[in-house]
Known about the structure:
Chain A is mainly α. In chain A, 69% of the residues lie in helices and 0% in strands.
Amino acid sequence: xxxxxxxxxxxxxxxxxxxxxxxxxxxxxxxxxxxxxxxxxxxxxxxxxxxxxxxxxxxxxxxxxxxxxxxxxxxxxxxxxxxxxxxxxxxxxxxxxxxxxxxxxxxxxxxxxxxxxxxxxxxxxxxxxxxxxxxxxxxxxxxxxxxxxxxxxxxxxxxxxxxxxxxxxxxxxxxxxxxxxxxxxxxxxxxxxxxxxxxxxxxxxxxxxxxxxxxxxxxxxxxxxxxxxxxxxxxxxxxxxxxxxxxxxxxxxxxxxxxxxxxxxxxxxxxxxxxxxxxxxxxxxxxxxxxxxxxxxxxxxxxxxxxxxxxxxxxxxx
Amino acid sequence: xxxxxxxxxxxxxxxxxxxxxxxxxxxxxxxxxxxxxxxxxxxxxxxxxxxxxxxxxxxxxxxxxxxxxxxxxxxxxxxxxxxxxxxxxxxxxxxxxxxxxxxxxxxxxxxxxxxxxxxxxxxxxxxxxxxxxxxxxxxxxxxxxxxxxxxxxxxxxxxxxxxxxxxxxxxxxxxxxxxxxxxxxxxxxxxxxxxxxxxxxxxxxxxxxxxxxxxxxxxxxxxxxxxxxxxxxxxxxxxxxxxxxxxxxxxxxxxxxxxxxxxxxxxxxxxxxxxxxxxxxxxxxxxxxxxxxxx
Lengths: 318, 295
């Protein structure tokens, strides 16, 4: 770690060797560059997490005048004995299972195909088209698909009813709004959204593989599938691991989509732990934020627990 | 799509067959890619066409309109009262967020690699952990309290503070890996020549991390321009909200939000980002490959 020698070291030797004040001033000036970022990071990321952790042990209600009381694990016990907590965690897991395979496998397939396009201009064009959804902000993606899935005026139902005549206006599928189709519909939308972005990740991974490896395997008579499975796949393992774990995290903690497509109906499959938390914190009664904090912490910890397991499963071998 | 013409080179029948036979895998490859490209482009083309459809065409729902009607664009600006305000809110909040986050990320990235104060490793670990923890969801409870305490509830400018942290961690990590590509000696020699950290960063560092800047610029623009949860929770008045929240709440098909009007607003909101990206795509890809994937 020769890098560990900071450039500041030179100043120390030249000007202020052994001078305590100089040392302190050097420390302050070194942290000066980090300060702006840290102020925001601590204020709006680190502090809120610890504050919510603290709140989860109190009976804090935002709209109540009474001071918060420390209630130890009451909120946790209450949440864990509520069937809705388990149902809502299960729904989030169900959505993750619908979303995760498609969002890993399709981009991988596409990346292998685009990687072999030899015409440079065509390859660039493909990459740009694939990445367009990635530069459309999240809410605008949801608005677009809310529209696509619209029961009466959406183009999907228009295709199914008017063009192909598979359904009538009475029995056309109800894609959103808390039906059984809602979670798969959202999963399709999310895969569409992330398709290009994830493809670019895999293309970068493929570009890093030395061309001799697959070529040598082919000369030895390996089929394309064997080349993929024994040569390409292990090389992509690190990228695969990061994508699986990160996307697992985003899928388990989805909230905006559920707010827009599902609302606060407890029977809806979109009423997951995130909506449960939001409902308690900002909608019901006097805003029981102590209880909501406990729900959020249970969801987060459950999520992190599975993420550690995933990290172990997908860790590149050797 | 026009790309299809590339391999529909029609010649004599027997020659066509052999051409197909020789290029079978390429044809399959390009067909599959084009199919996906089509799936990506179709919904967007649909909205674009919807925004220039006449009302009867919009009701009928056919893909290609019989009559074009370009008056929806002026209409939405003149007749939807809060629209210019919402649009301005979005532009203002996003611009401030992108600017401040970029400055914070560049300074922090430089410091983490080339100043390395004591405890820098701890900062990097904290940033990495925050990527895996559902901070955005869980922290909303406490952020509401903080904003309330600062008197920033129902205040558009107040949104900038939490918006900065939306992608701050990833931005710092990207800048950090960008600065790792710049040899240490370059900064050292600049500083031996009498430049301070500021000038070394400004004159030597910034040009070297240009691609990374493009990446965090786009990443933060996308995050702030489309943010929903915080704006929905922290701001109650429609006139003080940003464009996406208003769009998400719009009941399509009724009154001022007739489908073509909604589509026109949609196109206005989405196009700037796509155009900016198309121009910057080369730098964006380079930056993504250099920095983002290692971060």
